Amino acid sequence: DAMVIQNPRYQVTQFGKPVTLSCSQTLNHNVMYWYQQKSSQAPKLLFHYYDKDFNNEADTPDNFQSRRPNTSFCFLDIRSPGLGDAAMYLCATSRGQGLDGNTIYFGEGSWLTVV
Amino acid sequence: AQKVTQAQTEISVVEKEDVTLDCVYETRDTTYYLFWYKQPPSGELVFLIRRNSFDEQNEISGRYSWNFQKSTSSFNFTITASQVVDSAVYFCALSEAIDYKLSFGAGTTVTVRA
């Protein structure tokens, strides 16, 4: 059974129309991440939460926001999607402590199309 | 600065051939972790292996094997007797002890032809 679940798998949004992608995890992991992956590129970290502590990457545009209301859920909000934001968005988790603390487990991804 | 280099962009082989994916990393930490992930066309990044810097034992899992050599800062991955289902993009990644983030290589696309 999937342990990191992303919804929706496919999202089409209009240019400038806010969109929210969701992620839930059944692993009870402390850390949740959002990565952006464009075609033929490696995943790029946008931000991560260690418990409730939010950590933004320096080059993540302000257009991208995140919420983590509880341990299990994390949301990615794109306030005004542009054509350049079309990508796959990957949610991931890790324990964040212990011997296996930094092994990161990924969800299936949400493909975002901006029209 | 690039921390993980996967020099091979694409590799194409015929089924049952062996294929080796190269990965060279760079870090100043004495404690670090190396990973390989598989990304099939469906998109999910599948965790394959994690290796600690203090454990240089090579590992074999079925048709997969990994060769970790600190002396050359390499963590290479071999698929033996490749199958069509092995077709995917493979990413090597590094995590340093100071944080829990992954630095990915650019990925190597493996195509196995029947």
Main β-sheet of chain B, in a few words? 6 strands, mixed
Beta-strand portion of chain A reads over 45%
Residues in helices of chain A, as a percent range: under 10%
- Average pLDDT metric of chain B: 92
- Envelope shape of chain B: globular
Please report the number of helical segments of chain A. Answer: 0
Q: Report strand % of chain B.
A: over 45%
Return Rg of chain A in Å: 13 Å
Distance between the termini of chain B: 39 Å
Q: Extract low-pLDDT stretches of chain B.
A: none
Largest interface: A-B, 24 and 19 residues
> Tally the helices of chain B: what do you get?
0
Low-confidence stretches of chain A: none
> What's the average pLDDT of chain A?
94
Explain the overall architecture.
The complex is a heterodimer of chains A (115) and B (114). Chain A has strands at 4-7, 10-13, 19-25, 31-37, 44-50, 53-56, 64-67, 73-78, 87-94, 105-106, 110-114. With 115 residues, chain A is an all-beta fold. In chain A, the strands form 2 sheets. In chain A, strands 2, 4, 5, 6, 9, 10 and 11 form a 7-stranded mixed β-sheet that branches. Chain A is globular. The model of chain A has no long low-confidence stretch (mean pLDDT 94). Chain B is an all-beta fold and 114 residues long. In chain B, 0% of the residues lie in helices and 52% in strands. Chain B has no helices and 12 strands. Chain B has strands spanning 4-5, 10-14, 19-21, 24-25, 32-39, 46-52, 59-61, 64-69, 74-79, 88-96, 103-104, 108-113. Chain B is globular and about 45 Å long. Chain B starts with a strand and ends with a strand. At the A-B interface, strand 5, strand 9 and strand 10 of A face strand 5 and strand 6 of B.
